[in-house]
Amino acid sequence: MRLGQAAPERTGWAFTMARVAFLNIPAHGHTNPTLPVVRELVRRGEEVTYFSSDTFREKIEAAGARFVSYLEGVPFDSHSIHKNIFVNAGMVMRYARSLLPKVVEDLRRIGPDYVIHDSMCCWGKLAARILGLPAACSVTMFALGTRPALISFSFMRALGREFVDGFGGIRRWFRGARDVHRRWGVNTFDLKDCFTNREPLNVVYTSRLFQPKGDSFDERYRFVGPSVAPREEEFDLPLDDDDPRLLVYISLGTIVNQARAFYRACFDGLGGDSVRVVMSVGSQTDPAALGAAPENFVIRRRVPQLGVLARARAFVTHAGMNSVSGAMLARVPLVLFPQTAEQGLVARQVERLGAGVRLPHVDLTADRVREAVGEVVLDPAYREGAERIGQSFEDGGGWRAAADAFIEFRESRGIW
After folding, report:
1. 254 and 371, same domain (yes or no)
2. How many Cα atoms sit within 13 Å of 357 on the Cβ side?
3. Rounded to an integer, what distance in angstroms lies between the CA atom of residue 124 and that of residue 198?
4. Under a CB-based contact definition with an 8 Å cutoff, are residues 94 and 172 in contact?
5. Residue 131 located in a structural domain
6. Are 358 and 337 in contact (CB under 8 A)?
7. CATH number of the domain to which 178 belongs
8. Is the domain of 153 the same as that of 260?
9. Is 322 in the same domain as 372?
10. List of residues 6+ apart from 105 with CB closer than 8 A
11. What span, in angstroms and rounded, lies between the C-alpha atoms of 211 and 100?
């Protein structure tokens, strides 16, 4: 309902209470956590219109939302995302300049009561400002507060290297921000806001325990834990549940996963009869190009990850937020091999809380892989660390708590 209308008598969730536009960047790690939230909002009567690329149309419509495709000809998908965050900044602003005319037109036509946008979706925040709509932020990574809560020496060193390599992206960001201001008359924001896009409400899909300096964030931040709803997955891997050998899962995620030397080190370090291994190499890596795999390996481009984690005793991972969240919920300790500065932050938190160990990028050997996996499997302290993190995730309430927060935000603006 619109601002100022009387609230209807609530006899269930059968009526439409409000219209919400959800704007996201079309990447698996940013989209997947929002789908259970969308499903819950729809169940409660919200009319959700979700903006993304056609890659995610089927999933979004299955969650009950109306799908709106971004501007044709903008090649923005999960493989467009760069390893360097400053290159991504320039890319995001370029897409914002291209997408804003259509997004603003679509929002005017749809007439939402409020907007939810991803923390990297600056065009969502800009469109809400242009149209004067209340907006909340969906944060699938760590929250960035008003003080440098995430800074560590290793992170700053990695960020400094990325700054030098990605300086062209920074220049593109500022040029684009200037052009947006001139065309639309809205005040743009600094470079940090490219990755935060803070709003009066920021729903963060992790726990205060796992968030670096989580106690420093005020009431504008709602830490709800991972948004992972139960779902049916076809489990077609040739794994015998009666096999007594431990299962090790290996994956570098869906984006930065072309790492032949890493995969070969896993072959050499974990090949043999002592463990079983499931390895997911992603759509950009041809398993045949890796050479002959040991007989105890099952290699696929994609696997039903939650089903594998339910059976695994260790997970060798790139430390993406969604992968780490799934592992902690399954109480699986980690061997960490981050590919970006952002993933390095997640790996640092896992190490700090005692749920995993990190592999070196320099001089990675088969022995180091084997020793790291053996350490997290044999030392019960790592599983205890995973248990503590996983319990904090469950205590957050997940997708239901996220839906609660968004509806409370909408009601606080007088929208019923």
Report:
1. yes
2. 17
3. 11
4. yes
5. yes
6. yes
7. 3.40.50.2000
8. no
9. yes
10. none
11. 32
Quick one: tokens of 191? 């470079």
Q: Note the pTM of the prediction, 2 decimals.
A: 0.85
Could you list the residue range(s) of the whole structural domain that residue 150 is in?
A: 19-225+396-412
Strand order in the sheet with 66-69: 66-69, 47-52, 19-23, 114-118, 135-139, 202-204, 221-223
**Same structural domain, 182 and 110:** yes
- 256 and 381 share one domain: yes
| Angle formed by the axes of helices 153-165 and 167-184, nearest 10° | 70
pLDDT digits (tens, 9 = 90+) for 9-62: 443 444 457 999 999 988 888 999 999 999 999 999 999 999 999 989 999 999
Residue type, 373: V
DSSP string, 206-227: S-TTTSTTGGG--TTEEE----
Q: Do 65 and 55 share a structural domain?
A: yes
pLDDT tens track for 131-152: 999 999 999 989 976 554 445 5
Residue 147 falls in which region: left (phi positive, over 0), alpha (psi -120 to 50) or beta:
beta
Considering just the CA atoms, what is the radius of gyration of the chain in Å?
Answer: 22
CB atoms within 10 A of CB 311: 18
The helix (H) or strand (E) run that includes residue 48 is strand 47-52
